Amino acid sequence: MLQVRNLTVSYSGRKVFENLSIEIAQGEAVGLLGPSGCGKTTLALTLLRLLPLTAQVVSGSIHFADHDMLGADEGTLQRIRGREASIVFQEPAMALNPVMCVGDQVAEVARAHIQGSRKSWRREAQLALAEAGLEEARFYNAYPHQLSAGQRQRVAIAQALVAKPQFLIADEPTSALDNQTQAEILELFKGLRQNRRIALLFITHTPALLSGLADRCLMMKSTC
Prior knowledge:
The chain is α/β, with parallel strands linked by helices. The protein has helices spanning about 40-45, 75-80, 100-115, 120-130, 150-160, 180-195, and strands at about 1-10, 15-25, 30-35, 55-65, 65-70, 85-90, 165-170, 200-205, 215-220. The two termini are about 30 Å apart.
């Protein structure tokens, strides 16, 4: 599913990580551990070619399914992101528009990647929200500020899932949540593995979160 070879990324000439290699198979869950500042989020952004302009891929290769991610044009990348590979960020505010109801935001992702009608996209959004644990109809028309932190994170997960990707990156998706909500979100990811056979890269700095979720774990060290 994913093959990364000897990847080196820098910010303004300073290397964030060097010669990094990783493989993830279909249906496999891999945990990525490391301290803050070691480059975990940079890796996640690099995999989907979402790095800011100040960052540069110095060397290496990234192959996802049949795609050469570093050689792909923007049109190809737009088709891959969301449809074949998605990401859930630590802070759902990065993915949610504060002045748009959350159901329509999930439906917008469906519209971008799935052929159909307004009615079918709404239905896909409802199904994704339900899968993420927001089954009640009231959630569709809610705005982000009307939801708890855990509910907003579930909406972000629904956005990532609605186009039925094969690969999901979860970048510390529970770090801003209380213990009870954190446990619920972890159970959600475990269910996704069982029900969808989705490949998962789960990024965290807390080893205990990976128990019962990850098939294996990788460690990144800080270069500072």
